[in-house]
Design brief:
Blueprint (H helix, E strand, L loop, with lengths): L16 E6 L6 E5 L3 E8 L2 E9 L6 E8 L2 E9 L5 E5 L5 E5 L5 E7 L2 E7 L5 E8 L2 E11 L2 E8 L6 E13 L27 E9 L9 E9 L5 E7 L4 E8 L2
Antiparallel strand pairs: 1-2, 3-4, 3-18, 4-5, 5-6, 6-7, 7-8, 8-9, 9-10, 10-11, 11-12, 12-13, 13-14, 14-15, 15-16, 16-17, 17-18
Length: 256
């Protein structure tokens, strides 16, 4: 059966070539073509899930995502921005309606008339806080620390909004994330961060991440190491995430 992607990855809309990272031997900079992602696949033991992306010709925003399982269409998600300050996504089990802020980032998802989740961004467009509202009060859910355009730390809170139940830290490569792959998103969903709806992605590609429960004694950290393969235009074509006893493989193609 299909599994949810562990982490969301997503989209750049520019089509020019820029310098990304310099070679260690001091040669000319590596040039990476900045392209929107055409498809993203995740390889599971029992099959491959693939997401194909369609963009609006005028706004360049995501307009449609086709979700395939072993090359058979499973569902189509349609993005509707026709109501000012709103985004409605249909095609899943139920329509999802988001409030958008002036920058076009998701600011709120209402679960009911008196329950919702709110998203806060810094002035540079990076998500820094997630707050759930239920039981008549706010509950802090996540805080994200941003340094030099990179999300270096996630702090996740228990339902009381005070007790820290998980910490995750990220260490980055020297390679620039010019294709806007969302490797450090706090959003636990395979399509939500697409199109930078939940803020900007980290500027660099991730080398490894560590995570642990600070309530444990002694602290036991887990690590995920990430390796890359690149296409002829130096764009990530394959990303492999490896833990202690597991592996995840993601593949990418780009709009030419």
């Amino acid at each position: 059966m299909k599994k949810a992607l562990y982490l969301l990855l997503f989209v750049a809309m520019a089509t020019v070539a820029i310098s990304s990272c310099k070679k260690d031997n001091g040669d000319d900079p590596i040039v990476v073509v900045v392209s929107p992602i055409k498809s993203m696949g995740v390889v599971y033991p029992d099959g491959v899930e693939r997401y194909d992306f369609t963009y609006d010709a005028t706004s360049k925003k995501i307009s449609k995502i086709e979700d395939y399982w072993n090359d058979e269409l499973d569902k189509t998600l349609v993005y509707d921005y026709s109501v000012a300050g709103k985004l409605t996504i249909t095609g899943g089990s139920d329509p999802i309606v988001y409030d958008l802020n002036a920058s076009g980032y998701v600011s709120k998802e209402a679960w009911s008339a008196d329950e919702w989740v709110a998203y806060e961004y810094n002035t540079d467009g990076y998500l820094i806080k997630v707050t759930e509202h239920w039981g008549g009060e706010d509950h802090l859910k996540n805080e994200i620390e941003i340094v030099n355009g990179n999300a270096i730390k996630h702090t996740t809170y228990d339902d009381d909004g005070v007790t820290v139940k998980k910490i995750k830290t990220f260490t980055f490569t020297t390679g620039d994330n010019v294709n806007d792959i969302h490797q450090t998103s706090i959003i636990d969903n395979n399509t939500k961060p697409i199109g930078n709806l939940f803020g900007k992605p980290s500027k660099k590609l991730v080398d490894y991440l560590e995570y642990w429960d600070p309530r444990e004694e002694p602290i036991a950290k887990s690590r995920t190491t990430i390796t890359y393969e690149f296409d002829t235009k130096n764009r990530p074509s394959k990303i492999t995430r490896v833990g202690a006893d597991w592996q995840e493989v993601y593949t990418y193609t780009y709009v030419e």
